[in-house]
Amino acid sequence: MFFCFCFFIVVDGIYEVLMLVIFDCDGVLVDSEIISAQVSVDCLKAVGVERSLDYILETYRGKSVADCIRMITDELSSAADWQQLAESEKAERGAQFWRQVQLQTLVVCEQQLEPVTGVMMVLDYLRDHKIPFCVASNGKHEKMRMTLNKTGIMPYVQGRVFSFEDVTRGKPAPDLFLHAAKTLGVPATEAIVVEDSLTGIQAAVAAGMRPLGYCPPNHDGSDNCLVNEMRALGATVFFSMDELIPLILQQG
Q1: Hey, what long-range contacts does 201-206 have (CB within 8 A, 24 or more apart)?
Q2: How many domains is the chain partitioned into structurally?
Q3: Is residue 120 located within the same domain as residue 108?
Q4: What pTM was estimated for this model as a whole?
């Protein structure tokens, strides 16, 4: 049984929100991380660059678009036909390659994407108990519209979806989380952030918010490599969405 605490105070007869739960999107709400990583592995392999699925998951999870383009360009630079290219041409080709990866990822997501296991129960609970929540992601609005609609999550968060496109700096800077909290009228110190990446945890800490680190086992059943690093940053780590509601209530 879960016990619901009071998440509002009354000031001059007006209810004021005391808590906000901010969810990352990819890997926390929608199970897109494994799809995106596999597409990246396949696209890199097609041009002669071998990278493991776990490497891609660990390296690219939660990074901004600009960081991903820079990193994928570095990966491609190891290919034989890239080594003689000028840096400007590498940058241009890297950005083009990343766009192709993203387009292919969207195609696969439209066919296969599902919510993260157990997260719909969490959203139902928060909605039914009137605990405010939103989405704040380093992904683009266009991508989130597709993934959140495909998984049936959009009706839960309509009008409360925030992207790095809305601010000057994405994660790990605190700007995105602070923007979300300010827009929804909640002090940063009363916000809880649910993240699956070090980038997101860093942003939550920088924003003065309380981070919860989602660290499910890897696809092969091995331990998530981010557990200790998340804890070192100050996050409370959990491994299954079944654990999340009690953690949110404890934070409240």
Answers
A1: 201/230, 201/233, 201/234, 201/235, 202/171, 202/172, 202/233, 203/171, 203/172, 203/173, 203/174, 203/176, 203/177, 204/22, 204/174, 204/177, 204/235, 205/233, 205/234, 205/235, 206/172, 206/173, 206/174
A2: 2
A3: no
A4: 0.82
